[in-house]
Amino acid sequence: MSLNSVSSVCELSVTDNYKVYNYSLATPIPNFPHGALSEDGFYKVAANETVIWFQLCDGMIFNHHPPKCADCMDCGGPSRCGMDCSALMENNIGGYHVCTAIGHASSIDIKIIDANNPHLGVIVKMSNTGPKFNCSLSVSVFCDSNGAQGPHSLEKSGTCEYATVMRHPSGCAKIVHYHGKGWGWFGTVITIVFCLFGAYLLAGTVYRYFILGVRGIDIFPNLDFWSSIPQRIQSSVASLVQKFRGPSEGHRSSYSPVNF
């Protein structure tokens, strides 16, 4: 089993509040050289009369105890049953073990369990489109830094949609912090102000040109006011400077003290 071939399928990056959550289910970690992928080549979970074999993000490999099914044509055939799909379902129908592929590695989709809490883990969903109905298996991989548990609690919803849960350290994201760029809300306010000002100039110019028939530079609305702004700013700055520096030498009293 080559981890390089499945790494892209098992990776997910999510951005939330200046944090990047990176998930990589196939990356080797301490005590788990294949990440969340089963070292046996498959996981197995059962409930009632249904048994499901699956492998996360890759096809299954059976070195021992392969599924024995009457029909396994969509997942390797009788001689290689389970080897050509990522999830296989077995049902006991009339005393016969009938197998159906419910997921392929090419149709795997990965997403976070809870968009409001990226720390929980991810959901790996694999599916298969069959001649009679569509099937799928969703595996919730919860973050557990203490070790691996499961899979367990197989649930069925709809005609052929199954879900199971497991806990694994590979379900924990590696978090990267970054600083947001831009001016934030202040930049938004400035942008709105400039847009409103541009709309004001455009509307005023169109009105003066088509309605009032003004031509030339006077076409801009309130031109006298806008042209006086630099002088107003200069006067205000000079007044502030004069206020903080105190009276100048030229404005001091010219009277000399008188000695009696």
What is the element layout, followed by pairings?
Elements: H1 3-6, E1 11-16, E2 19-24, E3 43-47, E4 50-54, E5 87-93, E6 96-103, E7 109-112, E8 121-129, E9 134-143, E10 149-157, E11 161-168, E12 174-177, H2 184-210, H3 223-245
Describe the structure.
With 260 residues, the chain is an alpha+beta fold. Helices cover 21% and strands 31% of the residues. The protein contains three helices and twelve strands, in the order αββββββββββββαα. It has a five-stranded mixed sheet with strand order 7-8-9-11-10, with no helix packed on it. Strands 3-4-5-6 form a four-stranded antiparallel sheet, with no helix packed on it. Strand 7 and strand 8 form a beta hairpin. It is elongated and about 95 Å long. It starts with a helix and ends in a 15-residue tail after the last helix. The relative contact order is 0.11. The N terminus is likely disordered.
Query: Which spans of ≥5 residues are poorly predicted at pLDDT below 50?
Result: 1-6, 249-255
Overall pLDDT confidence = 83
Shape: elongated
Question: What's the N-to-C terminus distance?
Answer: 112 Å
Label the structural class: alpha+beta
Q: Give the strand tally.
A: 12
Please tell me how large the radius of gyration is: 36 Å
Give the neighbour order of strands across the main sheet: 7-8-9-11-10
Instruction: Give a quick account of the main beta sheet: strands, pairing sense, barrel closure.
Output: 5 strands, mixed
**Element order, helices and strands?**
HEEEEEEEEEEEEHH
Instruction: Please give the count of helices.
Output: 3
Strand content: 25-35%
Fraction of residues in H or I helices: 10-25%
